[in-house]
Amino acid sequence: MKPNKSSAPAPTGKSASLLYNPTFRSVVFQIIAVLALIFFFYSIVNNALTNLDARGIATGFGFLDQEAGFGIGLTLIEYDETYSYGRTFFIGLLNTALVSFLGIILATVVGFSMGIARLSSNWLVSRLAAVYIEIFRNIPLLLQIFFWYFAVLQALPSPRQSMSLGEAIFLNVRGLYFPAPVMEAGSGIVIASFVIGIIATILISIWASNKQKLTGQQTPMGRIVLLLCVVLPVVVYFLMGSPISAQYPELKGFNFKGGISIIPELAALLLALSIYTAAFIAEIVRSGINAVSHGQTEAAMSLGLPRSRTLKLVVIPQALRIIIPPLTSQYLNLTKNSSLAMAIGYPDLVSVFAGTTLNQTGQAIEIIAMTMAVYLTLSLLTSALMNIYNRKVALVER
């Protein structure tokens, strides 16, 4: 007795090969998913624009050319009330980038220091690092921002009773004031010598690293850095007749004038972001170091390397392969957490653009979309740079 066969004809030819090709089907399904996603967002945006038009609310980006009419406490580029809303966007963007960049540097330095201190053989150092980590990573970041701003910085004396270091640096409730450089003719050559020194140091460092891998011989980079980045610019400075002077802050009326000032909002936000994120980085560093086989440390010490050089040359390079991925996440968190600046009035992107500008113009969709795009771009850029570094330090298998 013959088995029953399906009456439907099986696909044949080229169509059959495409139908059962996993690559072809995956591409088709992805195209369908992307088209569905585009249609979904198009429907949402179109519906929102229709509702706004029905209410008589203008849409588009024409508002960026309108006069802003409000002041901003901290600006890295020229600005006054007559500038446009487009200018306020760039000022908020630069202020956000400033606190994020400085916060990443400080958090990395403090985090690595505390992570290494957490593993110290000295009981007191280890316990103090543990106390720091457990305190600051378990208190909400917003409360830490309030603590530094209201409990610490707002408790400083008034400008007339400023805390001073000599006659150059002053600290009071209005901020930190210190001398500003005044550039004169020939200052560009001094700056160029400093930049050349940095570039030369980087090139020599790469050469020294390759030399050490091939021969095992180390180059005294400390002396080279001192010579190229300090001695060279100082010599050029005096040869050019001291073309860079200083403008000192002076108390005039109820506040200081001249020099460079750091507003308390920036200081509070920077301290809170750095200290909070550093507590998490410290645990990442500790776990990364612990993940390196103890046999590596014993082998290095058996060759006569002191603990400091063992940590620098043997342990840390191997631990970085474990540390970098979670470290990237902490950098992204710090950048996004900077949006909490609105709570204390620091003029970042959210406060200046998504706050004041939005309230004055009512262009909610455009402003929020631009703000989201900025944070997305900053996060993707940070991830890209960290991924490049991660590939550089990754273990290459042969």
Automatic annotation (TrEMBL):
It is a multi-pass membrane protein. Pfam families: BPD_transp_1. PROSITE patterns: ABC_TM1. It comes from the Bacteria. It is found in: Cell inner membrane; Cell membrane. One of its GO terms (molecular function) is transmembrane transporter activity. Residues 93-386 form the ABC transmembrane type-1 domain. The keyword Transmembrane helix applies. The chain crosses the membrane at residues 27-45, 57-77, 89-114, 135-156, 185-208, 220-240, 260-282, 340-358, 364-389. The keyword Cell membrane applies. Its main location: membrane. One of its GO terms (cellular component) is ATP-binding cassette (ABC) transporter complex. One of its GO terms (biological process) is amino acid transport. Keywords: Amino-acid transport, Cell membrane, Membrane, Transmembrane, Transmembrane helix, Transport. Signal peptide: none annotated. Belongs to the binding-protein-dependent transport system permease family. HisMQ subfamily. This is Amino acid ABC transporter permease.
